[in-house]
Design brief:
Helix 9 runs antiparallel to helix 11 and helix 14 runs antiparallel to helix 15. This protein is mainly alpha-helical. It has a two-stranded antiparallel sheet. The chain contains 20 helices and two strands. Helix content is 64%, strand content 2%.
Length: 450
């Protein structure tokens, strides 16, 4: 049963002609130089930039190949360094075409790191695996990666003797790879069941010590579970609305603030899905749940950190407002000259999950634009078709968020959209002057209230 559609040039000195071959070479060079003299400065600058980018892309490819080879090194330190470099590269660039023909080799190397590695190496391998699946997308390539490593991810996640960091990384990888590449409902249900067994174990009601000891692991499992909940078919969502969601309220009493917030957001997501299906979520514990949310929205206990209390109150006020009135606090995400709106808990959960994996690189995956450091003001920029590293947007991510074709502008439009340095200076000066006047009035003794 199908779930849904996801959505280098060499330089040298010229020698004096000593043979007919050298004379012929001189004629070719002189012909090329005369042809280049007829080119405009803009075309010449664009050609030089194209050559420079080609050399830069080849250098990047060589480094990536070296990191992939280092995954099989005997030294654990070398393997970890290679995994760290691949993680940074995969999260900041779209490399789908480059990785397409190397995905099997890379998948085998990551499998060995997960099996034979320890602690940090396993955690990094799980993260790189997630990014690889994200690069491959929801086609058969991504599905192949998911099916081959799903048993291993499940074994590490459920192994209580494994490193907490490795289990946490595998929880994220299992959820993200299933969201991206799973094509069967059975795979989705099995992954959700495995994740649910982590954040709501049978012993959780006997004191909750597991929640305090392994807070980050439970957070990753709950985040992945709620992400998969957003793509569940209505038939499975109805079974969760009947009694499955009742495992979430006990998590609101956790001593780990991040887990409390994630549990509250997941409860809001469940209420949202119930509204979409026009299902009544009334239950004998619903009123107690609302009272519990009100306490968390106004909590001022001094034994909790001040920043934690402020963040918790802000988020739970939004959760309580949605449950009582159905009002969602919309958020706008801007990237480049585009923006998207997070207008539901499902959309917000999806964005937060991908942001957790990509970090600041999520903006590079969403937009198309010139690479940092490249100058685009020298006329039209030629496209190098043989360089896959020039791709800047992730089609899968844009499809998931319904962004449509990427917005591509020429150099003139990009330049016109930017605010000049002088305009920024005037704005900052005016803002500084207004702020100084406002503070001076407050600081004046005549403004004191006796």
């Amino acid at each position: 049963m199908t779930l849904r559609t996801r959505g280098g040039l060499r330089s040298g000195r010229a020698c004096s002609p000593a043979s007919e071959e050298e004379e012929a070479g001189s004629e070719v060079l002189s012909h090329c130089s005369s042809a280049s003299e007829g080119a405009s400065p803009a075309e010449e600058a664009a050609g030089n930039e194209a050559v420079g980018e080609q050399g830069q892309e080849e250098e990047v490819e060589d480094r990536l190949k070296e990191h992939m080879d280092n995954l099989l090194d005997k030294s654990a330190k070398t393997r970890q360094a290679a995994l760290q470099s691949l993680r940074l590269a995969f999260s900041s660039k779209t490399l789908s075409e480059f990785l397409l023909e190397r995905r099997l080799t890379l998948t085998d190397s990551l499998e060995k790191c997960l099996k034979k590695g320890k602690g940090e190496e396993q955690a990094l391998a799980g993260t790189v695996l997630t990014l690889l699946c994200l690069q491959m997308g929801s086609g058969w390539e991504g599905e192949e990666i998911f099916r081959s490593l799903k048993p291993l991810l499940t074994n590490i996640l459920t192994d209580s003797t494994a490193s907490p960091g490795a289990r946490q990384s595998c929880a994220t990888a299992l959820g993200m790879c299933c969201y991206i590449a799973a094509a069967d409902l059975e795979d989705l249900i099995l992954c959700m069941s495995c994740l649910e067994g982590i954040f709501s174990p049978p012993s959780a009601g006997e004191g909750g010590s597991a929640l305090i000891q392994h807070g980050p692991l439970h957070c990753s499992a709950l985040q992945s579970w709620s992400l998969l909940l957003t793509i569940c078919p209505p038939s499975h969502i109805k079974s969760i609305l009947d009694d499955g969601w009742l495992k979430l309220p006990p998590l609101l009493s956790s001593n780990f603030v991040t887990l409390r917030i994630l549990a509250g957001e997941t409860i809001a997501l469940v209420f949202e899905l119930a509204q979409d299906l026009e299902e009544d979520l009334c239950h004998q514990d619903t009123e107690f749940l609302r009272a519990q949310l009100k306490v968390l929205a106004t909590e001022s206990n001094k034994y909790r950190a001040k920043t934690d209390r402020r963040k918790q109150r802000s988020i739970f006020r939004d959760i309580l407002r949605f449950i009582e009135s159905g009002e969602y606090q919309e958020e706008t995400i801007r990237f480049g000259l585009e923006c998207m709106f997070l207008d539901s808990w499902a959309r917000q959960r999806t964005y937060q999950a991908f942001k957790e994996v990509l970090g600041s690189g999520i903006r590079h995956h969403l937009q198309v634009g010139p690479r940092q450091g490249c100058q685009r003001d020298a006329g039209p920029v030629p496209v190098i078709a043989d360089s896959p590293l020039l791709l800047q947007n992730n089609e899968l991510l844009r499809e998931i968020f319904g962004l449509g074709p990427p917005l591509v502008l020429d150099a003139a439009a990009l330049k016109a959209s930017k605010v000049s340095r002088f305009e920024k200076h005037l704005y900052n000066s005016a803002a500084f002057k207004a702020r100084t006047k406002a503070r001076s009035r407050v600081r004046d003794k005549r403004a004191d209230v006796l």
